[in-house]
Amino acid sequence: MEKWPPSRSKAKAKANHERNPLMQTGPSPTPMKLPSFFEEDRLAVDAQLQTLLPAESAQPPSIHTAMRYSVFAGGKRIRPMLCLEAARIFTPDVAPALYPGCAIEFIHTYSLIHDDLPALDNDDLRRGKPTCHKKYGEATAILAGDALLTLAFETIAATPVSADLRVAMVTEISTAAGTVNGMVGGQVADLEAEGRAVGPETLEYIHRSKTAALIRASIAAGALCAGAPADDVARLRRFGETIGWAFQVTDDILDVTESSAALGKTAGKDIAQQKATYPAVFGLERSQQIAKELAGKAIAELAPYDERASRLRTIAEFLVLRRT
Ligand code: FPP
Ligand code: MG
CA-to-CA distance for 71 and 110, rounded, in angstroms? Predict the structure, then answer.
């Protein structure tokens, strides 16, 4: 019987290690050339988002126009890609995973619309365009966020898998978006930390709740949707939480190192708003090291899947090497 995980030769392991951009030292890397599956996934996700969102002409058109404006403003679709690629470890038919993937993209988009509101981060620019409230007014932006959050759960309920799996995905995703170690809780802590000196523990709590929880849920929901065994879902949750944390550390770094034009949002705002960030607490260089260490730790969780997780590994590397 074939042994699982299959043993890998030392030479192959060494070659993999040397190929891993996270193991390279030296100056900041040039942007990664993204493999073609990124584009395939993105197209599949965009087509599904088009199907799931009400038409602009549906009554009342103003809200549907605003929802579509923010969903199609040029996001990278990282969360749905993670969902699809986690499912691919367990099944070649990843089409059902488009549903939880798109649901999470709706939640992510709602969170950005609300984050940009004057009462929160008060930003005029997102993905290189006017923010939702700048374009359509505050009332419509608040309601577009509410509508996307609601549509997310309608979408999970429509996933073509068993009712048990749909309930498991609702639990996974609602917890991650909620208040206890979830996105809303992290957002509250982020706002309350503004202008205050915070230590590493608070910073870790903010990043893991505000950002890592939803990224973790993207990966866990993909695995659940594909019928993965509980041990694998737990392993992928650990991968997701750690790579999500590395993702937010990288986001903090990019706010310092990149321009508004490159990021499509106002760069340098974290310092201006005295946000609790990794560069503020640890300095830029140590933060870069932390992001790499976290990504390395996350990727190590994928070892049992060998080649089956190669796409997920590539996305994980991209998340900390990206420039936008
Ligand atoms: C950028 O993602 C987003 C983050 C780094 C997450 C920040 C967290 C919040 C804004 C939470 C807000 C919560 C509430 C409840 C208001 P990305 O780089 O994937 O963005 P993209 O989709 O534009 O590519
Ligand atoms: Mg914010």
Answer: 9
Q: What's the CA-to-centroid distance between 121 and ligand 1, angstroms?
A: 12
- Residue 13 phi/psi, 5-degree rounding, is -60, -40
The answer to whether the CB of 241 is under 6 A from ligand 1 is no
CA of 223 to the centre of ligand 2 (A): 29
Number of Cα atoms under 13 Å in the Cβ half of residue 165: 22
Q: Which two tokens stand for residue 191?
A: 């706002």
Ranges of beta strands (E only) in the chain are 125-126, 129-130
**What's the pLDDT tens digit per position in 179-223?**
999 999 999 999 999 999 999 999 999 999 999 999 999 999 999
CATH 1.20.210.10 for the 34-321 domain, yes or no: no
Atom of ligand 1 nearest to the CA of 265: 23
Residue range 307-317, pLDDT digits in tens = 999 999 999 99
* Cα–Cα distance, 77 to 79 (Å, whole number): 6
Per the CB < 8 A criterion, the answer to whether 213 and 247 are in contact is no
- The answer, yes or no, to whether any atom of ligand 1 lies below 6 A from the CB of 184, is yes
Which atom of ligand 1 is the closest one to the Cα of 120?
A: 16
DSSP letters spanning 127-168: TTEE-HHHHH-HHHHHHHHHHHHHHHHHHHHT-SS-HHHHHH
pTM over 0.90: yes
Please give the structure tokens belonging to residue 40: 């395939």
Q: How many whole angstroms separate alpha carbon 69 and alpha carbon 47?
A: 15
Ligand 1 touching residue 251 (CB < 6 A): yes
- Locate the domains of the chain by residue range: 34-321
Measured between alpha carbons, how far is 13 from 295 in angstroms, rounded to an integer? 18
**Separation of 186 CA from ligand 2 center, angstroms?**
10
Predicted confidence at residue 10, as pLDDT, reads: 43
**What is the rounded distance in angstroms from the CA atom of residue 162 to the CA atom of residue 156?**
11
